[in-house]
Write a structure and sequence with these properties.
Distance between the termini: 42 Å
Largest sheet: 10 strands, mixed
Order of helices and strands: HEEHEHEHEHHEEHEHEEEEHEHEEEE
Shape: elongated
Number of strands: 17
Structural class: alpha/beta
Strand order of the largest sheet: 11-12-10-9-8-13-6-14-17-16
Helix content: 25-40%
Number of helices: 10
């Protein structure tokens, strides 16, 4: 019977996903060691700076199976690294254990790897097979690949809009989506490196921008506050989680709050993306407000959008409504019903 490479690679991808939110700016990677159609080892990259998937996979092999390692096939969702970073090259480990066959999900376009890992394994006489489930493997690390290929963070827009097309009311804090969707939003936060809001949202909603309902990490909090108008008692300026404040007045760091001065100009989006790129922020979730979201759309600086459609209208009642942003050059990927809300997932056709 032919070996089902896709089956074991799918397991690698499942394992790799467990590192979401924890391993950036490294990619998510999973590995499986198979001996005579039996899995004898599994591992994934759990935390940035710690052991890679291949290391954890080999270390997981029971002592009684150590002699089987060199006769096994190693499946890994991403081309093994060949360079010294926070940890030694995984290619060295594979060669040291005399593993004869390695199956790769996709190649690593990062310039320090980019084919060099597979080449080194082949030079050592190892049979390298792949790519296997390449599309799925690339999609898993779309943030990582986009960051290194486009030289800017992967941008995800998120907002909730009412049945009458409003994202909120001026000067008022209101909940548009339901409780189930709000919990999902916190999960989304845990998957991204950072989260960004504009001044008005920070002033009106006084958000915490953390992950309060999930097991994942908190994103780096970022706010645009050109003239440093935020009240010092704002949640974003507390010391509970790191916050970057983009402004045009000063550079200053106090506790976990870092004020970053940018040159005054009509739009600060490009300077912000340049700064975050150079500081290894691979992905940013844009949570509002409407003006900031529309600015990213108008400048074609977005990659995905999560738009939550509530089934109830807000109704103005002598208040001034804030119109929801209007997407352009967008492809609808799917719809998902969460309680009474329907979430529309889009990708930018210009990304």
């Amino acid at each position: 019977m032919p070996i089902n490479h896709e089956f074991y690679m799918q397991r690698c991808l499942q394992l790799a996903q467990k590192g979401a939110g924890w391993v950036a700016p490294n990619p998510m990677v999973g590995a499986v060691l198979v001996y005579q159609d039996q899995i004898i080892g599994e591992g994934y990259h759990k935390q940035y700076g710690q052991a890679h998937a291949e290391v954890n996979c080999i270390n997981s092999v029971a002592k009684k199976n150590h002699e089987k390692i060199k006769e096994s096939t190693l499946y890994v969702s991403l081309e093994p690294c060949v360079h010294f970073g926070k940890t030694p090259p995984c290619t060295n480990l594979i060669i040291e254990h005399q593993i004869k066959k390695v199956v790769i999900g996709c190649m690593d376009s990062f310039e320090a790897v980019n084919g060099k890992g597979a080449a080194k394994l082949k030079e050592a006489g190892i049979n390298v097979i792949g790519p296997i489930l390449e599309k799925e493997a690339i999609n898993l690390n779309k943030r990582f690949f986009h960051f290194h290929q486009k030289h800017r963070p992967y941008i995800i827009l998120k907002w909730a809009q009412s049945a009458d097309g409003l994202i909120g009311l001026q000067g008022q804090t209101i909940k548009v989506s339901n409780a189930y969707t709000q919990r999902l939003v916190h999960h989304w936060r845990s998957e991204e490196a950072a989260i960004l809001v504009g001044t008005q949202t920070a002033v009106t909603d006084n958000p915490q921008l953390n992950n309060r309902f999930g097991n994942g990490p908190n994103p780096l909090r970022m706010v645009i506050d050109r003239s440093l108008l935020l009240d010092p008692s704002s949640h974003l300026l507390n010391d509970q989680h790191p916050t970057w404040v983009f402004n045009t007045i000063q550079n200053e760091t106090s506790g976990t709050v870092k004020q970053i001065q940018l040159v005054e100009q009509a739009s600060l989006l490009e300077p912000i993306l340049e700064y975050t790129y150079h500081h290894q922020v691979q992905s940013i979730l844009i949570e509002g407000g409407a003006k900031l979201l529309q600015s990213f759309i108008n400048q074609a600086l977005w990659d995905e959008a999560y738009v939550i459609h509530a089934n109830q209208a807000i109704g103005l009642k002598n208040a001034i409504g804030i119109q929801a942003p209007s997407l352009m050059q967008a492809q609808l990927l799917k719809k998902e019903k969460v309680g009474t809300d329907i979430i529309h997932y889009y990708r930018s056709v210009q990304s």
